[in-house]
Amino acid sequence: MLRLGLFQMGLGIMSLLTLGVINRIMIDELKVPALIAAGAIAMHQFVSPARIWFGQMSDAKPLFGIHRSGYVWLGAAFFTTVSFLALQVVWQLGSSLQATGLSALSYGWTAILALIFALYGLALSASSTPFAALLFDISDEDNRSKLVSIVWSMLMVGIIIGAIISSIVLDRPELCGTDILSYNPATTGTATNVSQLKPAVNLLFIIVPAIVLGLCLIATLGVEKRFSRYQSRSMVAQREDQITLRRALRILTASRQTGLFFSFLLVMSISLFMQDAVLEPFGGEVFGMCISETTRFNVFFGMGTLVGIGSTGFLVIPHLGKKKTVKLGCIGTAIFLILFIISGLAVNPELLKGSLLGFGLSSGILTAGAISLMLDLTAVETAGTFIGAWGLAQAMARGLATVLGGAVLDIGRSLFTVPTLAYGLVFATQAIGMILAITLLRRVNIQEFRDNAKKAITTVLENELD
């Protein structure tokens, strides 16, 4: 379990590069409008329908004689390479903005950046969806929540490690404190010396992806052949006419619970991640923090999430059950989002850091509960397809959340002259979304899903025999 967690640790480190570093550099240092920056980054989530296809491929078409790991390795090799290319386009976009403002050239570089992030998202889907299906293949219902706690705890360890590495590499005093508070964020000028910043960030995007690729290989080599129960569990694993994508989609849509849980995941994930693209700029614009300081936000968030995820599978879920655990996480997350707003109004960085710790704890409880519930709402024969669908809901939500975060921030800036209120509008929208997610969760029924999925699989197989 711990070794598998190394893959998630790598994903945590990579997420820090795309959302913790690239977004901060684009919005604050290069003065790219928040909506454009968030929209380009979000493209890696908007290609998420491919998750269903990659999941189904890993069900039906083994690579290197195994169902899941080959896809994991190829995807990881590709997304670690593409991340460096994305950074190089960011520098070109920043240069064009400083030279010509929002011109045709700038929009051209934005389109190229969006395309590269789309390729990054496809590679991520090809790797992470079969990995999640592998977790289903090697676990049982009684130990699945513990597996989720350990593996996703390692994700947060990765985020913490990535934040520490990034804050050290990016510890540059050019734009901190009174300097960052004295400029107008609507202008394209910057107090940061980009030519000095560029080599340090380039080095970060070479070293870290190489480490991540190594972690991926260490995590998965040999695990599937030794521990996977896919062949013994699935009634179609040995059939030559294994369930195709079309048949898998028929099974996927057989239960109304699929749609209900998909909707819950969508609303919950949007409400959880809207702050991703605006949190570091919030620290810079409202509190006057350096780039290295705002990167350390992820340490506080990661520590809280680590405790939340690590304890949920062993302590919270066995006592409350999965649905009540998810509800608890939603309520806690909403409370700490409100505290973000209060910390900004009071310009109290210590309250912000404490709120980040509590937000991380609540989101950890929510994440562990939701993932455990997700794996219960999965059929053995089409595990990759179902997990692809749940991954699609989460990825779509994260993409929408990134764009909505930037868009709501821009709306807030047009409505309010005080930056705290503009950012507060983002956090308040998230809190309202969490309450809506709770109302959707009440209608989710695991037993109804299982009954409908079994009937659908039997029907598909009988039709093929006929």
Write structural notes for this entry.
The protein is mainly alpha-helical. The protein has a single domain (2-227, 242-465), classed as Growth Hormone, Chain: A (Up-down Bundle), CATH 1.20.1250.20. The chain contains 20 helices and no strands. The protein has helices spanning 2-29, 34-46, 50-60, 69-100, 104-138, 141-169, 177-182, 194-220, 223-227, 230-233, 245-252, 256-273, 279-287, 291-295, 297-320, 322-345, 349-376, 383-415, 419-441, 446-465. α6 (141-169) packs antiparallel against α17. The longest helix has 35 residues, at 104-138. It is globular.
Any chance you could write out the topology, listing elements then pairs?
Blueprint: H1 2-29, H2 34-46, H3 50-60, H4 69-100, H5 104-138, H6 141-169, H7 177-182, H8 194-220, H9 223-227, H10 230-233, H11 245-252, H12 256-273, H13 279-287, H14 291-295, H15 297-320, H16 322-345, H17 349-376, H18 383-415, H19 419-441, H20 446-465
Helix pairs in contact: 1-2, 1-4, 1-6, 1-8, 1-13, 2-5, 2-18, 3-5, 3-18, 4-5, 4-8, 5-18, 6-8, 6-15, 6-17, 11-20, 12-18, 12-19, 15-16, 15-17, 16-17, 16-19, 18-19
